[in-house]
Specification:
Elements (H helix, E strand, L loop, with lengths): L4 E6 L2 E6 L10 H16 L5 E6 L4 E3 L4 H9 L2 H21 L4 E5 L2 E3 L1 H8 L2 E5 L3 E3 L13 H9 L1 H10 L2 E2 L1 H7 L4 E3 L4 H13 L3 H14 L4 H15 L3 H12 L9
Parallel strand pairs: 2-3, 3-5, 4-6, 5-7, 6-8, 7-10
Antiparallel strand pairs: 1-2, 8-9
Helix pairs in contact: 1-3, 2-3, 3-4, 4-5, 5-6, 9-10
Length: about 260
């Protein structure tokens, strides 16, 4: 059986590919579990500083959860469905959101349901002009379960999120951009080049600084402004004694390019 998730390293960038193209890269349990394993591997690999996540094939980033598999969990009872489907999916998107290395989604096609929820959770997203999005769970008689009721409203605002959640309508990459769901739209043939270009703009900087920014933003969203400012100060305190901050300051004063070590 082919791997449900492919993973390769291109210098300092990890390319991670959802690999069920015949199923529009639907998120079955095996795929989610493998994704979590790969993220664990990437986190401890100091050679990797950024992640690009995309889907195999020409049609889909991910069409969402694997409905036949999920339906069996529902038939087994509410607690089984919560354990096997809801908590598994929420663990994946929460892991992506809090991941200390930037994750860039390259949305190459359909991003429905869980595929859209991954897009909401990752740090940055580049969309092909062929991409389409939807929050179609209501068509199955259920709410989104991988964080889609929470993250979309934080990104887009309550009323705009509710319109998509309550209608299940598809929406364009242009609308996704207006909602703050993606950072840019590019011609389909330029998608990976654009994602790598965005990654390279991040890789110029200290990985410690990048991780501290991701932590402050992802945790701070759920805090009051006072708590968030305290979090921001704590993240500065983590980098204050490091080589990277000293190097960044010295390089600025000396008008040269810094050389970061991630320590």
């Amino acid at each position: 059986m082919p791997e449900t998730v492919l993973f390769e390293r291109d210098d300092e960038i990890a390319l991670v590919i959802l690999n069920r193209p015949e199923k529009l890269n639907a998120l079955n349990y095996e795929l989610i579990d493998r994704m979590l394993e790969i993220l664990d591997e990437i986190e401890v690999d100091n050679r990797i500083r950024a992640v690009i996540l995309t889907g195999a094939g020409e049609r889909a980033f991910s069409a969402g959860g694997d409905i036949p598999e999920f339906s069996q969990s529902v038939k087994a009872g509410t607690q089984t469905a919560l354990k096997e489907f809801v908590r598994r999916g929420q663990s994946m998107t929460a892991r992506m959101e809090a991941f200390p290395k930037p994750i860039i989604a390259a949305i190459n096609g359909i991003a429905y349901g869980g595929g859209c929820e991954i897009t909401e959770a990752v740090h940055l997203a580049v969309a092909s002009d062929r991409a389409t999005f939807a929050k179609p769970e209501i068509n199955l008689g259920m709410p989104p379960t991988f964080g889609g009721t929470q993250r979309l409203s934080r990104l887009a605002g309550r009323k705009r999120a509710l319109e998509l959640l309550l209608t299940g309508d598809t929406f364009s990459p242009e609308h996704a951009f207006k909602l703050g769901l993606v950072n840019m739209i590019v011609p389909h043939d330029e998608l990976m080049e654009a994602a790598k270009g965005l990654a390279s703009r991040i890789l110029r900087h200290s990985p410690l600084a990048a991780a501290s920014i991701i932590t402050a933003v992802s945790r701070g969203m759920n805090m009051s402004i006072g708590e968030g400012l305290q979090m921001e100060g704590e993240q500065f305190a983590r980098v204050a004694p490091t080589h990277d901050l000293r190097e960044g300051l010295d390089a600025w004063i000396e008008r040269r390019s810094p050389v970061y070590k991630g320590v």
